[in-house]
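Weekly sync, protein design subgroup
Attendees: M.S., D.O., the rotation student, P.L. (late)

Item 1: inverse folding check
M.S. brought a backbone from last month's batch and wanted to see whether the design step gives back something sensible before we order anything. D.O. pointed out we never logged the input encoding, so this time it goes straight into the notes. Structure tokens as presented (158 positions):
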């Protein structure tokens, strides 16, 4: 984990898709406990928790509410913590990328407790002393996209 993540300006989101899941599966309390432990071990102060009970497989993404909160500069949020990509969205790579890009544009880093999501950018032409938009990439982007697609595929298996 990047030691530069220590911040007092973090929010966290907890999502379940149904009451049944909340009782039998990945309960809100279990997610909250895991995020709090992660925050403690990384010296993060979660200013606000969002609790959402709604499917994230449809066109209207429940996490948009949290993203909008993060985008409001009056809230001063620098970090958005989730348990995992499948708790962030079940809409696949399109919705994952759309939500994450909104955060990136306003300077908010999205992280998950498993370390799948990365915020490092690499310039493949740095050794030449030049930079282009196409020479910048995220080493974790493919893993993030694959995980978002896996989360979408899981809907068919539930």
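Designed sequence read out in the meeting:
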């Amino acid at each position: 984990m990047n030691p530069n993540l220590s911040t007092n300006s973090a929010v966290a989101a907890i999502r379940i898709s149904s009451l049944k899941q909340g009782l039998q599966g990945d309960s809100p309390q279990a997610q909250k406990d895991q995020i709090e432990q992660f925050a403690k071990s990384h010296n993060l102060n979660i200013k606000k928790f969002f609790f959402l009970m709604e499917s994230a497989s449809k066109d209207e993404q429940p996490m948009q509410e949290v993203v909008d909160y993060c985008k409001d500069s009056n809230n001063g949020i620098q970090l958005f913590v989730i348990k995992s990509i499948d708790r962030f969205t079940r809409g696949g790579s399109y919705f994952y990328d759309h939500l994450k890009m909104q955060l990136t544009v306003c300077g908010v880093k999205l992280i998950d407790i498993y370390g799948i999501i990365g915020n490092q950018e690499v310039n493949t032409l740095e050794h030449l002393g030049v930079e282009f938009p196409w020479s910048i990439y995220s080493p974790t982007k493919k893993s993030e996209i694959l995980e978002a697609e896996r989360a979408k595929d899981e809907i068919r298996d539930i």
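Discussion: The chain has one domain: 7-157. Strands lie at 7-16, 44-53, 79-82, 109-112, 122-123, 136-137.
Action: P.L. to compare against the previous round before Friday.
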